[in-house]
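Each record in this resource describes a single protein on a pair of labelled lines. An example record follows, reproduced without changes.
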Amino acid sequence: MVRKTFLIFLLMISLWSCATTKVPISSIHIGNLPPSIVSELSLDERILAEEAWDDLKQGRGSKAEKTITRLGMESPIYSVGLGYVNYLMNKLQTAERFFRKALEDQPELALAHSGLAQIYQKTGQEDKAFAALREVLKTEPENLWANQQYKKNIPHFFAYDIALVLRND
């Protein structure tokens, strides 16, 4: 009886050690590629862009970086994609530079504004995060993530708005 119990216990431990766990995906929000950008791409570029975006959403920054690099600097997703790659790798200053570069080329690109908002939230720059979220909502008023972030931080943003009004008086 003791031997049987020991064997069952040993079997359970060996099976448990084979169990896999899912690696948690970063808490970063990466929106979908805008149809206006995707429609401009060739079929091969579109496939690469979607592959890179899937890798980003799965937290595979290195793989996404290789794919985005294959697309080249002239691609409309190059800068914003590398912004998210660097954000995933916690290289926030580099990520910010890439998001800003994306906005130089496409000033209303909500993906770049949301990337900046996340950097600013992570670094405690709430006033800049608020401004970036407003830019996302100007372009995409129905953006679920931006609306949630905005509502979650309303008390802070309200205080920020009051401070701006008082400074201007």
User: Anything to note?
Assistant: The chain has a mean pLDDT of 85. The chain has ten helices and no strands. The two ends are 86 Å apart (CA to CA). The first helix runs from residue 2 to 18.
